[in-house]
Amino acid sequence: RPTEPGKRPYELGKRLEQMDESRAAILQAARAQLEANGYRQLTMAGLAAESGVTRQTIHNLFGTKTGVLEAVFDLIALDSGMQRMPEVMMLSPGDAQVVRFVGIFCSFWARNRVLLRRVHGIGAIDPEFGAVIEARNRRRLMAATRIVERLGGGDVKQRAAMLRAVTSFEFFDALAESCGSEAEALVLRLARASVSPPEL
Description:
The chain has helices at residues 7-37, 44-51, 55-62, 65-79, 85-89, 95-111, 113-125, 127-151, 156-166, 169-179, 183-195. It has eleven helices and no strands.
């Protein structure tokens, strides 16, 4: 029987909507399981049961468990305002750019400390996911390098490496553990010192 005019696009739209809903449910379940039970207890079967979809649906949407974890990482980054980073990189070189750069990362780390501890722990024991985290760290280094280059001065590589180090999750987490709410101010102070051109 011929398809009624307009019916197929409508059905496609419904399928896409259902896919978006399924994706959101899976990611919400994955995040909750990671925070509550850690990586070892996270299984495709458990995600399927908790999110109300089939394991095949999870496979179709994400491929592997690493794919799910990568999507969770992207989701928390989006929720924490990391999409503002291109705006920061377009600012004129100077202290305001450094302040915004540090602020975005500190906000990201602070809002998701428990989950990010688990995420980084996963990267330490799972080479595939470790590569995902390292790729993001390289992007942060590239951004740090661009900031330092635009500020001018010598030894760009060393200063960029220092800026990357002081804006890492591990560094922030250690400061927050000891200094609480003062962590961001301390990171900013160290970041400013990191990017300052060395005195002649």
